[in-house]
Write a structure and sequence with these properties.
This protein is α+β, with helices and mostly antiparallel strands. 32% of the residues lie in helices and 21% in strands. Strands 1-2-8-3-9-15-10 form a 7-stranded mixed sheet, covered by helices on one side. A hairpin with a 7-residue loop joins strand 5 and strand 6. It is globular and about 80 Å long. The chain starts with 5 loop residues before the first helix and ends with a helix.
Length: 414
């Protein structure tokens, strides 16, 4: 590839990251937050301006568009999500660009105590001379996944401006609410109309991911017996005590996020709210295999039942609902989308790396729903926190991968 996309990618990421588009798991609406429309409407406008066809914002808050094919081939989908993670402050993001990174520590103007160090984060040490984008110290950056949005928009503009480049039909989808597991509406697979697709929502250069966690969410509700504490002896049942006992009984030393890695799953208590009369605990359950996921869910139920047995006057319920499944179960039946991405990587002189994602993507749900969708790198690092950063040059490599991949898909489809 001889194209230089660095400045366009930098401009797009800085512009997009400054827009607050955080999602909210407690909101029932779709999108979960109205502020996501700031990004959605902007992308709708920009897609129209660069000449994309069939541009629309769906009723469930996804932006869809078409880049007509210049040759025959399968229809390929390109996806990124516009929302940023609820886990850290995402209001008032002030992106900044460290030009020609010199290899030292990066400090942050709005939090002088915060330091991004190449010693602590060795991948940063590999980016000598790169242009590094970070936030200002008090917010996340939002490269997850506005880097993916910038990469797809840059590739789309290039294709539409150069109609001589051979590629099949391309369908673009920018989704809301990926960070809260609601990015793939049941209507999206049919509306996308792709034979297979790719999310640009990965990390370091070369990553071609086709294996994710399988995921369930759980909600435990505890109803105690409420009575005036002055007259409570032998009568009160304190829901806080029972909730604490449930959390304490779970295997904290072996099965929580902070003590697991690699292929190990976990049960993670994410929220505990309520009072002495009623309590609610939210959990996320993760495992790479269906059997392991089911076993962890059953363990949570058994813990709740055991605590319930110690206090029959209380009521304890445990509701577990599916979230997404490991995309490997479907992709391993036909690895064509993965193989195309790996071949495109090698064509660019990059060695493809596939490691299981300790998380999920919109591609997890899309793959399960019939649209095979591996995940490709963007360069994003340290996501969901104030030390988030990305190299503009890594994003350029992802843009080159996107364009190379589309060309290879058209050739393979003939």
């Amino acid at each position: 590839m001889t194209h230089t996309f660095d400045q366009e990618l930098e401009d797009r990421l800085v512009r997009y990251a400054a827009i607050d588009s955080q999602s909210d798991a407690d909101s029932p609406s779709s999108p979960s937050t109205g502020i996501q429309f700031g990004m959605l409407r902007l992308l709708e406008q920009e897609l129209g301006e660069i000449g994309a066809k069939d541009v629309q914002v769906t009723e469930y808050g996804a932006v869809l568009a078409t880049i007509p094919g210049t040759t025959e081939g399968p229809t390929v989908g390109l996806l990124a999500h516009v929302d940023t993670a609820p886990q850290f402050n995402a209001t008032g993001v002030k992106p900044r660009v460290v030009k020609g990174y010199n290899g030292g520590e990066i400090t942050f103007p709005d939090d002088p105590a915060l330091v991004l160090s190449p010693e602590e984060y060795p991948y940063l040490a590999e980016k000598l001379g790169h242009d590094i984008v970070t936030a200002s110290g008090t917010t996340l950056l939002g490269a997850d996944d506005k880097a993916g949005v910038a990469i797809i928009m840059t590739a789309a503009r290039h294709l539409l401006a150069n109609p001589g480049i051979p590629h099949g039909p391309v369908r673009i989808a920018f989704t809301p609410d990926e960070e809260i597991g609601r990015g793939v509406d049941p209507k999206l697979p049919a509306d996308l109309g792709a034979d297979f697709a790719y999310t640009f929502d990965g990390g370091r250069v070369g990553e071609i991911e086709y294996e994710t966690f399988s995921a369930d969410g759980a909600e435990v509700r505890i109803t105690g017996v409420s009575i005036h504490p002055g007259f409570a002896k032998g009568k009160m049942v304190n829901a806080i005590h029972l909730a604490s006992r449930i959390v304490e009984t779970l295997p904290q030393a072996t099965m929580t996020p902070e003590v697991t890695d690699g292929l190990e799953g976990f049960v993670h208590a994410t929220e505990m709210t309520g009072g002495s009369s009623e309590m609610k605990i939210k959990f996320i359950i993760r495992d790479f295999e269906r059997e392991g996921l089911a076993a962890k869910g059953e363990m949570l139920r058994q813990v709740c039942a055991a605590v319930q047995a110690t206090e029959p006057r209380a009521t304890i319920t445990c509701e577990i609902r599916p979230q997404y499944r490991n995309m490997r179960y479907w992709l391993e039946e036909d690895m064509t989308p993965v193989d195309l991405a790996r071949d495109a990587c090698r064509d660019l002189g990059l060695e493809p790396v596939s490691v299981p994602i300790r998380g999920g993507t919109d591609g997890s749900r899309l793959t399960e729903m019939g649209v095979p969708t591996p995940n490709l790198f963007t360069g994003m690092q340290n996501i969901h926190g104030p030390l988030e950063w990305i190299s503009v040059q890594d994003m350029a490599k992802a843009t080159d991968l996107c364009l190379t991949l589309l060309g290879k898909a058209a050739t393979a489809g003939r």
